[in-house]
Design goal:
The model has no long low-confidence stretch (mean pLDDT 90). Helix 4 links the parallel strand 14 and strand 15. This protein has four helices and 15 strands. It is mainly beta. The protein is 8% helix and 19% strand. Strands 1-2-3-4-5-6-8-10-11-12-13-14-15 form a 13-stranded parallel beta sheet, with helices on one face. A two-stranded parallel sheet has the order 7-9.
């Protein structure tokens, strides 16, 4: 039987090794370390957590990243009102978010993998401190945050959500950083129609989007804020619109593995960093010193055109 006395009650940080699965030790730790602030359980083998975890009133950080056996979280997790980071990305067996997640009023960073069909939009809307939200491999979700406004949300990342079709535009309007990666059903118009909303996006990443033929019109709403744009593995991208040159703050442009993209917009006068990697048509046209249009990028401070080593 585990001796409780060997675990100091004053511990503030505990990092478990990969594949940890000792449930008696976990139960003892949670019941004894009342002042714990940081609990790292990444790549562990727990199917759940003890209900007593809700008593860790001082906990700020809880990560279950990559736990392939986690099937659920106890509702008591939602009693952690000082929790700022909750990470269960890569928890591919997690059935749903814990009920009552709206009570995590201090939550700033939430990273999610879940099997659930319907996302608890209204619950998340109550997280008024939330700044960063990440979805990874949520293949059953078709829509997110419909009709919800998250005024504090600044960073949103969507990765490998194969059936995700839509996201409320109310969320987009406040974002500063947005990544959309391998969401093959994503409707890039986002329901804006012909209206160009006023946006605040500073950094945008568009990756592995086979439906992307050109940049979405709504990006023009970030004409005064967009600082960096990364486009990668978009096999059907054929053009970049001329209005991209009107982005007065755009300093960094990265284009990788876009085989059918043939040209860049003219007059990218404010651009300071340009990377073109493994784009045959672009490389031919803008190769430094020899490409027919290399003079159009000669003013850019840092330029790479070619193929980076893997």
């Amino acid at each position: 039987m585990l001796d409780r006395a060997v675990i100091p009650t004053c511990l503030r940080t505990i990092i478990f090794p990969d594949e940890a699965s000792n449930e008696p030790f976990m139960n003892t730790l949670v019941s004894r370390c009342k002042y714990l602030r940081f609990l790292e359980l990444s790549n562990s083998n727990y199917e759940s957590l003890p209900p007593s975890i809700g008593k860790l009133k001082h906990l700020r950080f809880l990560s279950l990243f990559g736990n392939k056996k986690l099937k659920g979280l106890p509702p008591s997790v939602c009693n952690l009102q000082n929790l700022e980071t909750l990470n269960f990305n890569g928890c591919t067996e997690l059935q749903e978010l814990p009920k009552g997640i709206r009570k995590l009023i201090s939550l700033r960073r939430l990273h999610i993998t879940t099997k659930q069909l319907h996302f608890p939009d209204k619950e998340i809307a109550n997280l008024t401190s939330l700044e960063t939200l990440t979805f990874h491999s949520c293949d059953n979700l078709e829509s997110l945050l419909e009709g919800v406004q998250l005024s504090s949300l600044k960073n949103l990342s969507l990765h490998d959500c194969g059936n995700l079709k839509s996201l409320s535009f109310h969320v987009i309007t406040n974002l500063e950083n947005l990544v959309i990666d391998n969401c093959c059903e994503w409707e890039l118009s986002m329901g804006f129609g012909y209206q160009i909303p006023e946006l605040r996006i500073k950094s945008l990443g568009l990756k592995s989007l086979q439906q992307l033929l050109t940049l979405p019109q709504w990006l023009q709403g970030s004409v005064n804020t967009l600082h960096s744009l990364v486009i990668a593995d978009c096999n059907n991208l054929k053009e970049l619109p001329e209005w991209l040159s009107s982005m007065i703050c755009l300093k960094l442009l990265v284009i990788e593995y876009c085989p059918y993209l043939q040209s860049l917009p003219d007059n990218l006068t404010n651009l300071e960093n340009l990377l073109i990697n493994s784009c045959p048509e672009l490389c031919k046209r803008y190769q430094l010193g020899v490409g027919q249009d290399c003079h159009k990028i000669s003013h850019i401070k840092k330029v790479f055109v070619g193929e980076l080593e893997e």
